[in-house]
Amino acid sequence: MAKIKITQVKSTIKRPKDQKATIIALGLGKINRTVEVENNPAIAGMVRKVSHLVKVEEA
């Protein structure tokens, strides 16, 4: 599978608990923090859930 870079671009303040938990599960939590992960169906689902809070790029 390909690697993707996920960067948090918006805050989780005033967001539902499940979105906050998803951000933490992805390894983010602060604005402009970036993680590089393998793209798989589980990660894709998490990214889709918080797509309005993150930016995704091919690595």
Automatic annotation (TrEMBL):
The keyword Ribosomal protein applies. Residues 4-54 form the Large ribosomal subunit protein uL30-like ferredoxin-like fold domain. It comes from the Bacteria. GO terms for cellular component: cytosolic large ribosomal subunit. SUPFAM superfamilies: Ribosomal protein L30p/L7e (SSF55129). GO terms for biological process: translation. Keywords: Ribonucleoprotein, Ribosomal protein. One of its GO terms (molecular function) is structural constituent of ribosome. Part of the 50S ribosomal subunit. Belongs to the universal ribosomal protein uL30 family. This is Large ribosomal subunit protein uL30. The gene is rpmD.
